[in-house]
């Protein structure tokens, strides 16, 4: 059977420079390549409008919802988490209404916890009873709690972060109890959602890899004594992780004369503050050629202690043949045999000490990158993920209870009251 999927994301998943956007774009594209009819709705990315829909899978119908997100100040008054309140716009509601009134989609995907508000919309409008699927990029209940508890800035912002954590918990509980199928990137996230709803069906789909594979590299002493960290630092959790890592590295790396390059956009005023505090660090910003950055680094760092989930940049490091050094907390979803190829410690301070100790053992580092590439080369396939997703959807559809339109329309829509 050909499955019709309405995929609801906050924004179009472009540009492809952040893990959640890459995952959404690739998984939706893989489902379409495996034979599904996929319509993807989302607003234009308000933070970065440099991406192009031409870079996405052409088998998907990418439909941009007009208008901008709701203002942040107004969103604070909602009972939805900030990301949900901002993207639950009247134009988005109208776009969902139009799709569900004109097409009986078999499946509706709620991509990320910020789309929890759409559950009531779907129940009220859909003429059939579509299978509801939640794609969870992380167990955000835990992440937002970590952010609020570890934030050390002004008390007003800390209060708002705690309120957002409470709203996030409610949103994920709603999704766990309303959806028919859950997609997670890690077993840890699957277990967390099953604690909320033990009957919730789940499929764990770690990311695939669609980038360039550096088929050969010999790491030797001609490579600079340099560590590198690559990322998109617009999210507060990533900013907190970065600053904590730089504080820890100031003593260890400067003492051992190890270079550190940070690659990726860091918003102001944080960037200026970090440059003043850590003048020894090179902040590269956005670069056109990541390959050149990887070729000139001996070690790639994954220091995120706050926030779980699968770190897609690990795959970029592996397939670019850069040895990986990571804290254990940042390795959710990574198979044990692959972890054994990394430098792994349970804290940032211990990790940086191990990096300093191994920085000049280029033979050992070369063996690690080579073995990691070999182990990972047969894993992380997007088309396999697409096939597994469709198999699960076919099972869910075969078990779907049939409801009359009048029954569906009778369900109240609290989202209208809360937005």
What is the subunit organization of this protein? single chain
The count of helical stretches stands at: 18
Count of domain modules = 2
Biggest sheet statistics? 7 strands, parallel
CATH architecture descriptor name of the largest domain: 3-Layer(aba) Sandwich
Radius of gyration: 22 Å
Question: How many beta-strand elements?
Answer: 13
Q: What is the highest CATH level, the class of the largest domain? A: Alpha Beta
CATH T-level topology of the largest domain? Rossmann fold
Task: Assign an overall shape.
Answer: globular
Q: State the CATH superfamily name of the largest domain.
A: Glycogen Phosphorylase B
> Which regions contain 5 or more consecutive residues with pLDDT less than 50?
403-419
* Average pLDDT number: 92
Structural class: alpha/beta
> First CA to last CA: what distance?
37 Å
Neighbour order of strands in the largest sheet: 3-2-1-4-5-6-7
Beta-strand portion reads 15-25%
Percent in helix: 40-55%
Fold and architecture overview:
- Helix 1 (19-33) crosses helix 16 (382-398), helix 6 runs antiparallel to helix 7 and helix 9 (236-255) crosses helix 14 (348-358).
- The protein has helices at residues 19-33, 72-75, 82-87, 90-102, 118-125, 140-150, 155-178, 187-196, 236-255, 270-277, 290-295, 313-319, 336-339, 348-358, 362-376, 382-398, 405-409, 414-418; strands at 4-11, 37-43, 61-65, 107-111, 131-136, 181-184, 201-204, 226-230, 259-263, 282-285, 299-302, 324-327, 343-345.
- The chain is built from 18 helices and 13 strands.
- It has 2 domains: 4-208 and 381-418, 3-Layer(aba) Sandwich (Rossmann fold), CATH 3.40.50.2000; 226-376, Glycogen Phosphorylase B (Rossmann fold, 3-Layer(aba) Sandwich).
- The longest helix has 24 residues, at 155-178.
- The strands form 2 sheets. It has a 7-stranded parallel beta sheet with strand order 3-2-1-4-5-6-7, sandwiched between helices.
- The chain is globular, with a radius of gyration of 22 Å.
- With 419 residues, the chain is α/β, with parallel strands linked by helices.
